[in-house]
Structures are given as structure tokens and as C-alpha cells.
UniProtKB/TrEMBL annotation:
GO terms for molecular function: RNA binding. GO terms for cellular component: cytoplasm; nucleus. It is found in: Cytoplasm; Nucleus. The keyword Plastid does not apply. Pfam families: RRM_1. It comes from the Eukaryota. InterPro entries: CELF3/4/5/6_RRM1, Nucleotide-bd_a/b_plait_sf, RBD_domain_sf, RRM_dom. This is CUGBP Elav-like family member 4 isoform X3. The gene is celf4.
Amino acid sequence: MATLTNGQVDGTVHGVGVVSASTNGLVNGLNHSHSPAGCPATIPMKDHDAIKLFIGQIPRNLDEKDLRPLFEEFGKIYELTVLKDRFTGMHKGCAFLTYCARESALKAQNALHEQKTLPGMNRPIQVKPADSESRGDRKLFVGMLNKQQSEDDVRRLFESFGSIEECTILRGPDGNSKGCAFVKYSSHAEAQAAIGALHGSQTMPGASSSLVVKFADTDKERTIRRMQQMAGQMGIFNPMALQFGAYGAYAQVQQQAALMASVGQGGYLSPMAAFAAAQMQHMATINGLPGAPLTPTSGGSTPPGISAPTVTSIPSPISVNGFTGMPPPQANGQPPAEAVFTNGIHHYPAQSPTAADPLQQAYTGVQQYAAAYPAAYGQISQAFPHPPPIIPQQQREGPEGCNLFIYHLPQEFGDGELMQMFLPFGNVISSKVFVDRATNQSKCFGFVSFDNPGSAQAAIQSMNGFQIGMKRLKVQLKRPKDANRPY
DNA sequence: TGTTATT
């Protein structure tokens, strides 16, 4: 190692040749007995701003251990990987190198890039930030703009930090600004300066947060974002799916559908039963056992013969009538037959007051299932050999009169649970629970859109005032965008 | 009361 001074490395082709000719013994000794000065032999940590370097024009007979000494001259190496063909394992003549310190990378790049030629190569070594690091180099993404701001407005905001090659406001098909833009400078340094000065520096009128200024996504990042969006639309980020993956979640939906079919009489299932079924599955799968997601509601509808204490934790039909002006419960604790839903649709067929209602059946059914086959929730996906078709939820809002605002949702409800709860009333084209971006916690309100106003009205009639725990759902038409302006 | 958006 003593021969590998900076002077020699900076020098001639011959100097580098010495390195490669002698590396084997040298590196072995170094790696096992030596650490760079001041760096104890610990798991390497890299700086947050470390740069991944691309190393090109490497002779194919040099592997990592041969290369390491050459680059260790400039600092502690975090990772060094020679690129190899995925199938043949053949050396591709290049490598990726990350130093623990950003400074080391800059030093190495300055000292080595195009400065010498390794033995057997006819072009000089390449040492430069990997493509993956370039992050569009000079191109910025600007977010949280006012939607009224024009290209010129944005230019004015950014022009003092460098020369702007390109400035584009992102617009929807209708030409309306999406509140963000791309700004491309002629150099990375200018872009960096703009980030430092402008990111978070101000909040545009009407924007929900302060100005965002960052390097634009690379293609790779964009792909990842797309996938995440897709995943979100599939609902695989709900807690149920976190446990089993999207595939398992699909299986659960199937399971629930089967459950509903078996419970619903005449093809209809009460919303409460649907809700309960969804909720029970949710809890059963999350906790491993049926929990008590919903606190007891006033009254109590446990029919004779069903005495499991947890049964009372399911919302009873009676709890539905809280704010809906429905007839009061009868002495036996059952709602009057046909009385619960006043929307003209018989979700809830008349039945004997003494018979266990679909809700109870659903609940006890799931309870028994979960208790008897604790592993089945995980295995059931094997019954579905192909993944479900992906139907992205593009449409956010339905027509006027079809969109509901729902408040006082249980904290643990996500988009999926919200949809499950409103599915019995019609075709739900979207469901959205608002989530605090910082904490990822539900804000306990959301939106559901149907494809027709009748379903929305039916849902309001049945679900407004629906009691869950200590709270009652508030279900009403979503306020139109420009309504209720005091001016 | 439909959110932070990536040509």
C-alpha cells in the first residue's frame, strides 16, 4: 500500500500498472489487518449526501479486491461493485463506487477521471457520478405553486439563481395548472442554489403548504411512484393487505363475497351485515382473533341464543336509527321488520323477530371461521391461482349529487373499509379516507362517490347517524366546490 | 369537504 501515494496515482499509466500487478497480496493484507486511519473496523456508514460513482474503462481482469486499493487512496469505501453480466457473470469493464464521504468521491473524480489509462485499456479511466445520481442534474420540480401562476411568474421567481433553459408549468388536459412546474437551469450548481434559497421559503396564496423546490424525478423514480400510486389504488396499503399482500387481500374480498352471498337472503345483504363482515374480517385478520372494534351501542340486539360477549360489539340495526328518524326499537331489542331502511330498497328482508339476523350470522360465522382456521386467511390465496385484474380507480368524483362526505369514521378505517361500508347502496366509483400526511393517521373523514344520486341518497338515509363506538357517522352530500362562499 | 402534483 505504501506505493500507492496520490502522487503515483496522479502520475503515469505505469504507476497504475504497478497497482494492478501487485494488488492481490497487497489487498489481502490491507483488508484484514488494516483500516484507514481513524476508521475502526465497523460496518461502513455513508454520508447522507454521498455520491455513487461510475467507474469506466476497467480491465476485465481486475475485480473488486484489485480495484479497492486504487480508490481507497481517496477515502473510506462504502461500496464497490464491479458490474457483471446478469447471466454469464462476465465482467463488464465498469463498476459502481460509493465512498462513505461525499468529499472522497469528489477527490477521486478530480484525481482519476480521464487522468490515466489502466493497463490494457486504450481509453482513460472514467470516474464520474453514476447516471442514477444525476437526478436530472439541473432540472427542478417545483410544487405548491399557485395555480394562477404562469411560466413567466415562475421564471421571475427563479431567474436570480442562474440562467433558466426551460420552464414549464404542468397542466391538465383542460389547460389548468396543476400547481407545479419544471425549471431547468444550465448547471447543477444553479439548480442547487435555487433549492437552497426557495424550498419552503414561502407559501403561495391558496397553496396548502410552502413552496416545494427539488430535483425532478429520474425515470426510475417516476416508475416507482407510478407503481406506488397503482398500489394505492388497489388498496394494498390498507392494514389487511399489509398482512397478506395484495393477493391475500383479493382472496379476502372473495371470501367476503362468499360470506355475503351466504348471509344475504334473496340476494341482498343489509349494510350493517356488510359493514360488520368487512369489519370483522379486518379485525380477525389484524389481531388474529376477532376483536372489539366497535364499542357497544345503546340498546342491544343480541338475539336469544347468541351470547358471545363480543357480539355486542357489533353495531346493531338499532344503532342505525340514531339520527335518521327511524322508528324506535321495540321491546325485544329488534328493529321493526322493514323499518330500518326507508329508502324503498329492501336491503333487510323481513324476518321473524326471534331469528338471528344476518348481521349476527355473519359475525358468528366469521368468528367461528377465524377461530377454527387461524391459518386459513393466509392460505386461502392459494385457491386463486391468478392475481386479480387491476382496475385503477381513476375517477375521483362522481356527478353532482352522487358524492358523499362522511365524517366520524373510525380511526382505523381506510379507503377499503369505507368502500365496503357503502357498497350495499350502489356502485361505489371511489372512496377516499383523508390521511394526515405527517402521521399517516386517518383524519376520520372521507368521501364516497356513487354513479347515481339514488344510491347516494339511499346511503345517506341508512348510514347517516350510524353509530360506531361512541361516535355516529355523519353522512351528507359533499359540498360543491364553490358553495358556501360567504362573499 | 377530493390533499403533495413529475413533461
